[in-house]
Specification:
The protein is an alpha+beta fold and about 425 residues long. It is built from 14 helices and 17 strands. The chain has helices at about 5-10, 40-45, 100-115, 150-155, 155-170, 195-215, 260-275, 275-280, 340-355, 365-370, 385-395, 395-400, 405-420, 425-430, and strands spanning about 15-20, 30-35, 45-50, 65-70, 75, 80-90, 95, 115-125, 125-130, 175-180, 185-190, 195, 220, 235-240, 310, 320, 325-330. The strands form three sheets. Strands 1, 2, 3, 4, 5, 6 and 7 form a seven-stranded mixed sheet that branches. Strands 12-8-14-17-16-15 form a six-stranded mixed sheet. Strands 10-11-9-13 form a four-stranded antiparallel sheet. α3 (about 100-115) runs parallel beside α9 (about 340-355), α7 crosses α9 and α12 (about 395-400) packs across α13. The structure holds adenosine-5'-diphosphate and magnesium ion (MG) (4 copies). One magnesium ion binds near residues 123 and 189.
C-alpha cells in the first residue's frame, strides 16, 4: 500500500479516483477526481454538501470534506482506469461524529486503548435479479430446496467467477462461493480481517457485486427480504478479539466451554444485553423485519433468528459458536451499513467486557421447533419502530456510539418510519374496505 495517492496513480496508470464516503443509511457517495488533482484532494479532501445525503445536516452547514484514507485504496479490477478510496468526513477542521466511518474508527481506538484488536468477517448474501428488480434472473432456478444447487451456480458462473477472480487478485483470501438457500441467491466468502478493513471490503464488495452484475445485464440486491416466501439476505458477522499486536486470539481458550475464553463470553454477554437495541443498526430498514421473525420459507427454514439466544454449532439461534475463539452473530442483514455494523458490535462487546456481562444460559435446542419451550429469552423487535425505541432506551449503547451519531441516526430513521407508516397499502384496503 502506498501512502501517496498521486504516486499510486503513476505506478498503476490510474486516471481517476473515486473518493467515497458512506452516509447513515449505508449509501456510498463519491466524487470522481482526476489523478492530476489527487495530491491536493488527499490533503484537503473533496467537498460535499453533506445535507444532500443521509446525514443530519442542513444547507446552512459549511462544506463537508471527504479526506481519502490511502490505506483503503483499491484499483477497480473491472475498470483499472479508476481507483476507489474510502474517505473520512471532516467539517470545520473536525471529524463529523455522525459519519459512520468516523464512528467505527472511534470505537476501534477505544478497543485499542483497552488493549483489544477486533477482527471480523462478514457473509454478505445477495440475489441476482432482473434489471427491473421484479423477479430473480434465472428462470430455471426453481428448486424448492435450492441451497448449494450445483447446476444453478454454474448458470451464473460468469458473474460469480469474475467477482471471485477479482477478490483473489486483490489478495482478500477468497475461499468459496455457493448458491444459497433462496432461488436466485448467492454467497461469496473471503478471509476475516481487522474491523475497519472488513468494513471497507464489505463496502467495496457491494459496489463490485452490483457493478459486475450490471455488466452482465443483471442486477444484484442485498435487500433483507426481496421476495416473500424465500429466505432473505443475511449478513452474518463473525467476531474475535486479539491482543494489541493482533497476534494472539484472546477469545480462544480450549479449557473453556466451546473454546470461548472468559473475555469472549463477556463480549458475547454485551451483544446479548444490547441485542434488541442494536437491531436498529444491524437490521436498519422496514423490510429487515420481514427477514427476522419470518414464517417458514418454502425451503423449510428462515435461517434468521427471532429470539435473543445463543448456542454451539447450531444455526437456529441469534448467536452461534461455530468453533473455538470466535462467535457468529446471525442477526445482521444485507441492509446493514458496513461501518455501523462493526461499530455497534464493538460498542456492545466493549460494554460487555467492562461490565463482565454474562451471556446467560446456552440453548442447544432447535429454536424453530422448540423455541416455545424457552422461557424468559427476549424476542427481537417485530418492526423498525420497536427497534428504534429499544435503541433510544439503551443509554449506554447510545453513549458508546456517540450522542451526535445516535441522535442523528434516530432522527433520520424515525423520519423513514413515518414515511412508511403514512404510505397507503393494498393490504389495508383488502382488510378494511368492507368493515
Ligand atoms: P458459515 O456459513 O458457516 O457461517 P462462512 O465460511 O460462510 O461460514 O463465513 C465465515 C466467516 O467467518 C468468514 O468471513 C471467515 O473469514 C470468518 N472467520 C473465521 N474465523 C474467524 C475469526 N477467528 N474471527 C473472525 N472471523 C472469522
Ligand atoms: Mg456544485
Ligand atoms: Mg456462509
Ligand atoms: Mg449464508
Ligand atoms: Mg453464517
Amino acid at each position: 500500500m502506498t501512502a501517496d495517492l498521486a504516486e499510486f496513480a503513476r505506478a498503476k496508470n490510474v486516471k481517476y479516483f473515486m473518493i467515497s464516503y458512506t452516509d447513515l443509511f449505508g449509501g456510498q457517495r463519491a466524487k470522481l477526481v482526476p489523478a492530476q488533482a489527487i495530491a491536493d484532494m488527499q490533503k484537503d479532501g473533496a467537498g460535499f454538501a453533506g445535507f444532500a445525503t443521509w446525514l443530519d445536516l442542513t444547507p446552512a452547514h459549511p462544506d463537508m470534506l471527504a479526506v481519502p484514507d490511502p490505506d483503503s485504496v483499491i484499483q477497480l479490477p473491472w475498470k483499472p482506469d479508476v481507483a476507489w478510496v474510502a474517505a473520512n468526513c471532516i467539517m470545520d477542521d473536525k471529524e463529523v461524529d455522525q459519519a459512520p466511518r468516523n464512528t467505527l474508527k472511534r470505537l476501534i481506538a477505544e478497543a485499542a486503548s483497552d488493549g483489544m484488536h477486533v477482527k471480523t468477517g462478514v457473509e454478505a448474501e445477495f440475489f441476482l435479479i432482473s434489471p427491473d428488480g421484479k423477479t430473480i434472473s434465472d428462470e430455471y432456478d426453481t428448486a424448492s430446496k435450492p441451497c448449494y444447487d450445483q447446476q444453478a451456480v454454474m448458470r451464473r458462473y460468469d458473474v460469480i467467477a469474475e467477482i471471485c477472480d477479482h477478490m483473489l487478485a486483490l489478495g482478500w483470501g477468497a475461499y468459496q462461493n455457493d448458491h444459497e438457500d433462496a432461488n436466485g441467491q448467492f454467497e461469496m466468502n473471503w478471509a476475516f480481517d481487522d474491523a475497519l478493513a472488513t468494513a471497507d471490503k464489505h463496502s467495496f464488495f457491494k459496489f463490485m457485486v452490483k457493478s459486475i452484475a450490471e455488466k452482465h445485464g443483471l442486477r444484484a440486491t442485498f435487500m433483507p427480504k426481496p421476495f416473500q416466501g424465500l429466505t432473505g439476505n443475511g449478513c452474518h458477522a463473525h467476531i474475535s478479539v486479539w491482543d494489541k499486536a493482533g497476534k494472539t486470539n484472546v477469545f480462544a481458550d480450549n479449557a473453556m466451554e466451546l473454546g470461548l475464553s472468559a473475555k469472549g463470553k463477556n463480549f458475547l454477554g454485551g451483544i446479548m444485553k444490547h441485542a434488541s437495541a442494536l437491531a436498529a443498526i444491524t437490521n436498519p430498514t422496514v423490510n429487515s423485519y420481514k427477514r427476522i421473525n419470518a414464517p417458514r420459507t418454502i425451503s423449510g427454514a428462515t435461517w434468521a433468528p427471532n429470539t435473543v439466544t445463543w448456542t454451539g454449532n447450531n444455526r437456529t439461534h441469534m448467536v452461534r459458536v461455530p468453533g473455538p475463539g470466535r462467535f457468529e452473530l446471525r442477526l445482521p442483514d444485507g441492509a446493514a451499513n458496513p461501518y455501523l455494523l462493526q461499530a455497534v458490535i464493538i460498542a456492545a462487546g466493549l460494554d460487555g467486557i467492562r461490565s463482565k456481562a454474562d451471556p446467560g444460559k446456552r440453548y442447544d435446542i432447535d429454536m424453530y421447533q422448540h423455541g416455545h419451550t424457552v422461557k424468559g429469552a427476549p424476542k427481537l423487535p417485530l418492526n423498525l419502530l420497536d427497534a428504534l425505541r429499544e435503541f433510544d432506551k439503551d443509554k449506554s449503547l447510545k453513549a458508546a456510539l456517540g450522542e451526535e451519531f445516535s441522535s442523528a441516526y434516530l432522527k433520520l430513521k424515525h423520519q423513514e418510519w413515518n414515511s412508511y407508516a403514512s404510505h397507503f397499502t393494498q393490504w389495508e384496503r383488502d382488510h378494511t374496505l368492507d368493515i
